[in-house]
Each structure stands twice: as C-alpha cells, then as structure tokens.
Design a protein that fits this description.
heterodimer, A: about 280 residues, alpha/beta, Rossmann fold, B: about 350 residues, 13 helices, about 75% helix, globular, ABC_transporter-like_ATP-bd (chain A), ion transport (chain A), nucleotide-binding (chain A), membrane (chain A)
Chain lengths: ~280, ~350
Amino acid sequence: MSDPVFETRGLSLGYGPRIAVSEVDLAISPGETTVLIGANGSGKSTLFKGLSRQLAPSTGTIRFNGHDLEELRPKPYARQVALLPQAPLVPEGLTVTELVSRGRHPHRRWWGAPSPGDDEAIARALSMVSLEEFAERPVDELSGGQRQRVWIALVLAQDTPTVLLDEPTAALDLAHQVELLDLLRGLRRPDGSRTTVITVLHELNLAARVADRVIALNAGRISAAGTPEEVFTPEILAEVFDLEAQVVRDPVEGHPVILPRGRRRICPTAPSRVM
Amino acid sequence: MKASAVHELQRRQTRRTTVVLVVLFTAMLAMMGIRVLLGQYTVTIPDFFRILGGERIPGATFIVMQDKLPRALLGAAAGAAFGISGALFRTVLRNPLASPDVLGINAGAAAGAVAAMYFLGAAGTGLAWAGLAGAIAAAMLIALVSTSLRGAAGTAGIVGERFLLAGIGVAALGQATVVGIMARLTTQNAQGAAVWTAGSLNSSTWDRLILVSVVLVVAIPAAVLVHRALQPASLGPELAVGLGSHPGRVQTAALGLGVVLAAVATASTGPLAFVALLSTPIAAALRHGRISVLASGAVGALIVLAADMVGAEMLGDARLPAGVITGAIGAPVMLWLLVQQRRGARS
C-alpha cells in the first residue's frame, strides 16, 4: 500500500476550550474516495477545518504527503488540496466563468496575473460538470443545483490531486447527487491516476455506493472505519446515528443498502416510532 | 468546451470593464474642464492653456491658478479617494451601507478638527491635520471595539457585523463630540467649524492638493492590488483559505487602506457626506454589480466636481459648500439602498 496522503496522529481540534474532534488517528490513501459520515455535530466539518488548515490542531499532528501541515505554505498547499465548504458566498454580478476562474487563485502570482493553464483548466472544469451552456450566465440567475455545480467546477479548476468536499450534494436532487458522486469517483489526474476525494455525505446509501472507505465519526471520535461493508452494519449504525436499521446488499452493484426502521430509543420501554 | 472559448469569454468581460472605465475617466476630465472653464467667471480654452503656459492675464491668471484649477483638481482627487475607500469597505464588509462615512471615519475627522479648533485654536492647514488624526483615531477605536467584542462563536476578528455596529457607534460618538464642542465655540469660530464639518472645496490650496496627490499616487495601485487580492476572501473565509489566501490579513489591509484614503480626503476637504457611500453602487451598477476600485474612484470624483459646481456656481447667490449638496443627494439614496437591501434579503 502506498504512503498515505493524510495521516493524523492523536489529532484534537477545537474552538477555544470546546473540543470538537479528539484523539483521531487516520490515514487516507491516495486515489481513494473516502466518505465521512456521522450525526450532526459529530465533528466532520471540524475535521475538514483541520485538514484544510482553517484550524490548527490543539494536540496531535496532521501530516500531508509526509510533511507536517504547519510547515507547508498556503499557496503551494492550495495547489495540492482543494476545499469546497458548505456555504461559500457568491460575489455580486459574476458570470459562471468568472466565478470558476477564482479557483485558479493558487496558480497565480501574488499580483494576480493569469497563469498559462487557466483557460484550459476552467474549460475542462465547466465541461466536467456540464455547465458549458451556462458559461456566460450570471451566477445569481442559476438554480440551487446549477449553482452547486458551479462551486464544484471552481474546485475542479483548482486542479489538485486531492479534493475535500463538505456535503457537496446538499442542494441537489437525487439524480444530480448520483451524477455528481459518480463524477467525483471517476476524477482522474492528467497522468491518469485517480484523484483523492474526501467528502462528507449525509445520504448513507449514496455513501455506500461511492465510497472506497467510510469513516464514521461519533462525538468527535472515529467509531468505525473501513470498507462500506465493514462500516454499514446494524450495530455501527445504531451506535453512530442512534438508528435502527436493516442492511441488505444491492442486487446489482453489491454494495450495502441501509433500510432505516426507526430511531433507536435511549429508553428501552418507550415505543419505537416507525419512519 | 475549448480553452479558446473561455479565453474569449474572459476577454469580453475585460473589454466591458475597460469601456466603462474609459467612459468614466472621460466624463471626469470633461467635468474638470467644465469646472475650470465655465461658471460665473468663464475662461476660454486658449486663455486657459496660455495661463498654464505661464502667461499672466490680469485677473484670469489669479482666478484660474489660485481658485478654479486647484479646486477642480482637489475635488477630483478627494472624490477619487472617497470613492476608492468606499469600494474597499464595500467589498470587505459586503454591505452597501458599510462605507467610511456611515461608519464614523468622517465623523471622527470632523470631531478631531472641531476639537483642535476649540482646545488648540487650530485653523487652516492645522484643521486638516487634526481631521486626519481624528479619522485615524476613529478607525482605531472601531478596530479596538470590534476585536474586543467577541461573537457568539468565540472568534474575534475585525470583519463582520461587529465592525459595522462598532462603526455606527463611533459615528454617533463623533457627531456628539462635534455638536458638543460647536455649542461652546464663539460665533465666528462656530461658523468656520460648520463649513469645515459640512465639507467644501472653498479652501482648496496647492498644499492640500499635493498631500492628497502624494497619497493617491501610492494608494491607487495599492488599492487595485489589494482589491484583486480580496477575490478569494469574497467567496467566504473557508473557501478563501482553501484557495491559499489569508482572508483576514488581506481584509485588514484593505480596510486600513480605505481608512487612510478617507482620512486624507476628509483632512483636505472636510467630511463630504455620502460620497464614499454613493460612488460604489453607482459604479457597480455600470458593471452589473461588479465592484471596481477605479470605477468607484472616477464616480467619486465626478460626484464631488458636480456637487461643487452646483453649490458654488449654479444656485445664484446661495453659495453652498459641496458637502451640503452631496448630503442632500446622499440621504435619499441611502434610504433607497436600505430599501433595496431589505428586498435583497427577502428574495
């Protein structure tokens, strides 16, 4: 197995005295699609903040390709790792192409001169998310789903070997969610190797379908990690999501399918509600 | 999709921006020409160039060289400084009402000038320096208050709602100081102070013009660069860090530059009301909402030149300082912006 892209040891992250992620050891292999799952507030976004250098570790270390994250300069790092946060802001008046071109920032000089690969990368990113026809449209006029594809294109235009996406499917309908996840799984670098994708997803069945590896977070700690088959078991789902569920195999693709049966009650005598 | 298509799209946008800038700069130069040549005392174009060439034409030389020309140049320079300052504030704070004049930079300058007049007996250029000190003190107070007020998330920073609130508070403090001191000034001093706090080009001297020009020569390229560096920050702090930028640092630099520009302009003309507030929305409307520091600067210059022309030449005997005119136009426009903003929040 090749050296991990990200490797954390005893990583704790927090906001002042409040610790949101504690004692996390994890290794992300290159070319894999890793999906982080967990209930709201379980520390997924905080872990992303650590990996994208928004938040310095309280304790422990994050290593990227063998280097301590603190040692790396922001712009070279941004040429290696791209981040799509949950709620980026749309500046006024920009067209799709102008917004996507902002993804080229780490490739530009400090005074903002365009870099030679800009047009090529922007064109490729727009094609990948099928936004060619919208290239000249103002972003304000697009629907939520189209706008989400613009953000994905911005991150793809950044042209990095690793991408971090925090709930990229939130605004999309089911067909577009499937399309996007297939796109992310199929991302290739110019040399033909797979892009390393780390993403937070709430939709467990889509996670099971797309992930090479699933990491389940619970209260800031990793409670399970492994292939979808290893993680999506009734026991782990009960522990991580307080969810009572049955797990079957997809008859065509073979990945696990979660059939929710109800919320697990803390008090065993209470009647369980069927969803 | 081909790279050449993307290139063509980008080039088309650049060309539109260039057209807007060329039109605005031509309009600004034309307005300066009108201000110098026309009015109650008119100068012919050949005479104007002869005066510039050093020829002495009795009466005309004095009026052009000591009043009309410095007045037009200072009006354009101060207007540009206010306009650029407004654009920087607007981009960082993402709020059309967040301009240095609303946030107490101008009020701080007025308070500084009036305080210097009352306590130190300052006059003339002394007032300008006191105004500069007042503006910078106001900015530091806003920064101090907004960094010490911690938000619910527990993160301190100079940017955001807290900055706006602190700015509005400092503006009120500055205005209260002005009113308090004005009540104690002698009638004659109070009149001088009133003219200064309204803002006017009546005391446009070459000294003041040089001060503003020196600042602008450095500040305009710096503003263009820092505004470009704000591009990642305008996508939100998280994506900005993801793109390898330091959003906090760039935003602080942009606001600092905006404060210096507003302070220097205020020091030279007095706090011309609403010029910074008005310039950016007007300039942005010409480019579908995109904010350009150069376009905002040109619009600011146009507003000040036009306001001075109207106040000094076009109202007959009632000669009003430019700041009164900009205030009269600015107040309804500010209300309109507020209404627009509410609409934007609803949609």
